[in-house]
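Predicting holo structure, heme C bound.
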Amino acid sequence: MIQFGYGGGFGWGGSCGALVGSGAAVQMVSKEKKDWVRIGQILFRWYESTKLPTEISNRYASNHQFLVPKYKSDKILPQSVSHSIFCHVSVGRWCETSGYASGSPERSERCARIAGDVVAKAVELLNLNLRGALPEAASKVTLSPYTAGCRTCHYKGKNYEQGQFERGFLECESCHKDMRPHISGTKLQTAFGTPIDTWAKFLTGAAVGGIGVHLITKLARGEHEES
Ligand code: HEC
Ligand code: HEC
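Done. Tokens:
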């Protein structure tokens, strides 16, 4: 039923099909919306930030422990962190790391292993939740420090002038690395009464130097839950 998710949706390279399929399954077996939303959000963030395929699935494949008649490859495959839920980015970064082409059997096998990894993670989260043991911290969406900075202004909200014309929890830095739009002499005042270009310089410095991030994260805290 959810095979359309292949290749990020009919081959389009959108959300990784393993996430689409697992998300659908998690919703189907969960009683309450708050449960499947929470599990799905943890799963998506895990996918963005974890080295995949996991060592466990590499080991299963090299020992031929997966229940498939034939392997596209039983090598231990290189791992990479996608920093993105998108098939396009995830495959691209893995190919870059591994040196395998996107049409290689190793790349197909890599995605098959990741499908197993994602399903296993989803089941683990479902079980934790049933036992009431999902970590407390998991009830909030975790943001990368850079993203937390951006989301002090850019989130699903009602104030267009302050930057609320975007939504989503994607890792902003996986695409927006260049903060020059903010620096180019914008005199807009922000919610905190600071000209936007001051913030932009601060944020760029923070992102590059990895400092000042806690302050930004604090400002971002307690804000905007998105649905
Ligand atoms: C202090 C508030 C604030 C923060 C923090 C902030 N922005 Fe913005 N951003 C704005 C506002 C307001 C605009 C609209 C400015 C305008 O139209 O001149 C904007 C515009 C943009 C645009 C459109 C630029 C263009 O020229 O169309 C992008 C892209 C963007 N921001 C990305 C980001 C990213 C990525 C981050 C985090 C690194 C970030 N912003 C952090 C307030 C902010
Ligand atoms: C997968 C890549 C990707 C990610 C991740 C991403 N963006 Fe964007 N964003 C884009 C693209 C593409 C555009 C459209 C740019 C354009 O229209 O020129 C855009 C546009 C924007 C704009 C300007 C809207 C406009 O056109 O005026 C803002 C603001 C913005 N993004 C903020 C963010 C923030 C904040 C995050 C993190 C929560 C984020 N983006 C994550 C790709 C991304």
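The longest helix spans residues 105-130.
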